[in-house]
Amino acid sequence: MSPEVSDVDFPLPQPFADEEWEAIVAAAVANVAAIEAAQVLDDPAEAAVQDLLEAQPAGTRAALTLPVPAGACARTPTWHSRRYWLTLCEWIAANTDRGKTALKRHGIAAETFLKVCAAHAEYADSPTGRDVAATLATLASRSKLSTDQLKRGRRVLKTLELGVELARGKKLNGHEREAAARLYAQAHGQAPTRLQSGAASVWALSAPLWAVEAMPAPKKPKRRSQRRSARRVRKTGASTSRPASSVPRRSPRSAPQSSRSSFLVCLSVRKDHQARERAGEEHSTPTRIRPLTLQRAAAELVERVPALRAVVGLDEATGKRRGHIGSVCDLLVEAGIDTTRWTGADIAQALNHDGAARGWMWPAAETMTSPLRLLAFRLSQLDWSSPSLTERKIHGRELAGECPAEAAYRLVKAHRRTRAAVSAKLAPPASDEHRQAIREQLTADLAAKKAARALASARVG
Fold first, then answer.
1. Which of 90, 138, 233, 259 is spaced 20 to 30 Å from 131 by Cα?
2. Total Cβ atoms within 10 A of residue 364
3. Within a 10 A sphere around the Cβ of 88, how many other Cβ atoms?
4. Alpha-carbon distance 419 to 434, whole Å?
5. Closest alpha carbon to 169 in 251, 67, 53, 92
6. % of the chain beyond a pLDDT of 70
């Protein structure tokens, strides 16, 4: 054999075209999604982590919140508003024997108790008063109170039924630490340097029936009749010496110039339904109702994309509305997404996979100037005609006339009801009934394994 190597012209690799490369990437993303879906269905640990992530309330950021037991919120009345609840606490503590007795029993002054109430109300969900998951250290730093004062104030809230502890704070187990790490990675775009080891208690601020009935209703301020003000304006306008004009000049804030328009204004202020029917719904504007699946998909998408929480929903600190969820609904419609097939979780997962394939990540909310425009661009880069993850999961399990999204919500509700029923029927852990049930289950498992080994040995012999 000659030691010389003949020069052979090997063909150089040709670059892929844009369409071929996008098809390869899309196929790879679909394969990864299918593998992850199969792992979620087969792995109980992964299913437990996903349940914890889905149970997170709206507005959850980087810290994991403990899930609330099923049915706990249904037994807790919600407050009317943050201001009303603080007024209710102040009145109960100052004017009722039950409130004074509770303050004296737990050794806390009324002024300190009201500071504790204000500190908890700052972290509560504005419409309901729930989801108070701030730690004692956080409350102490914001309210300038000690931990002991906060604990005493919580005991008073629990005694007066003004606050209910839905979930007791504890150290996190392995599944919960994994869910906390994923939640942090979704919020910050990187893995946490230190895992979350514990979670705070979850409280709900309530307005109990006895307190609402005990406090007198606030007096409404008297309003001047708009009919009288309209007559006064007309008389003043008639007595002025300004030259008359064939076209009367009116500003948007001026009073109506006829008795009929004054009558309509008075009716709109009084909100008298029967009077509106007699006058006619001439000024009513038709409203466009968005489908329920579209609203659900938009809400789920906002929950799973932290960048959107800064512009849509309620501000957790002030309780003021920052933006309407309808803007996200309009973006989904403009992108051509069929929300009867794609849920909000499917859309968020598709965006995350596309971003990972392109090397993108969601920027921090503080650095974004227009999150909705970024979302519109990201949605326009994907093809939403392919089957969604929900369609692949529930294939063949839909009812007659039921779309995939509705079937998914129905199955999730049924699963949660089953878990709540099973957990309600089980005896408390470490009780006699629980230990006996575990012994019987262990005996049955050992007997089954023994019978299987005997059958296998008999076949071999």
1. 90
2. 13
3. 23
4. 17
5. 67
6. 74
Strand partners, 204: 164
**261 contacts 267 by C-beta, under 8 angstroms:** no
Count of all residues that appear for the chain in the document: 461
Look at residue 312 and give its three-state secondary structure. coil
Q: Is the pLDDT of residue 47 over 80?
A: no
Give the position of tokens 């303050």.
103
Q: Where are the domains of the chain?
A: 20-54, 73-214, 292-393, 426-460
Q: CB of 353 within 8 A of CB of 33?
A: yes
What DSSP string describes 62-84? Answer: SS--PPPPTTTGGGSPPPS-HHH
Predicted local confidence at residue 267, as pLDDT: 36
Matching residue, tokens 């150089």: 12
pLDDT at 221: 54
Question: What pLDDT band is residue 116 in, cutting at 50, 70 and 90?
Answer: very high
Token representation of residue 309: 């929480």
* Pair of tokens at residue 415: 């699963």
Cα separation, 315 vs 321, in Å, equals 6
Q: pTM of this prediction?
A: 0.42
Buried b (16+ CB within 10 A) or exposed e, 245-254: eeeeeeeeee
Q: Tell me the C-alpha distance between 337 and 351, whole Å.
A: 13
